[in-house]
Amino acid sequence: MRIVSLLPSATEIVCALGLGESLVGITHECDFPPDIVTGKPVVTKSLLPHAHDNDDEAEEDAGPLLLSAREIDERVRAALAAGESLYQIDNDLLRELKPDLVLTQALCDVCAVAHKAVVAAVDALGGSAQILNLEPTNLNGVLETIRQVGAATGKDVEAAALTAQMQERWDRVRERASAAPERPKTLLLEWTDPPFSAGHWNPELLALAGGVGGPWDEAGKPSRTLTWEEITAFAPEMLILIPCGFDADRAIEEAYTLPDAPGWFDLPAVQNAECYSIDGSVYFNRPGPRLAESAEILATVLHPETFTEMLPPYSVRRFPNDLIEPEKP
Distances from the Cα of 290 to the Cαs of 118, 166, 167, 170, in angstroms? Predict the structure, then answer.
């Protein structure tokens, strides 16, 4: 079987099921596991400006986005309002790859190639490829997508083992977190400017990790823009930034807009220096196998006295002092 994955999470699922050799095409964002995906043909590209867009660098080494969080948000909103795509498929390469199975989604045009573009590209192949949409909105849905990929590829046994392992890790986190002495009110932010809640499966991860979410945190619901009036009224005791598409370091860079927000320095999380950034691109925003690790990371940040061995290195950064301490007159 020849598989093209148009989702980083689907790529991780395919590889976790032992199908790395069957994976013939990936997206520009697929980076895990590196020993399998490195060198695979890249069939998509982002239409947002990148650091190397004006020089001779290879497209697959496009570099970091040139835009700020605010500028990215504005571009995305304008593109969606105009019905324009944020990504492009290399139709000629897709034709050369001759896939039997194309993994995609229609849940969010911000996260991946628009579904209608995928359908059009596959139709141009003459109907020889199957399209499998993976659209989880909660943790059970994530497990179901793994089973779907297993069923479509003859890897049902492997899918059952993987989902059982993920569920066991989530259950272990929930059990240990339930014994923690506190359940801090926690603001999970998926974007900084403007602030966005972290939706879909993330409220469930927060709950099982022993945190209390805001009134907007409802499992299965999409992310939404928050107002600073809502945030200050919630008065979070911890703030965790898990931006979509950014690693922990880039998240800290974008967090420098936060001190300008009304009431920032009055938030208990800021006053107690309980503000963190986590690599949201790698963990929380990919509905695949590493959501098990995401729960462990979150629980470790929320309850370091209870979870002492679950934190992967370099996955978390605490906000530096100049982000949480007001300037002295």
Answer: 25, 9, 12, 11
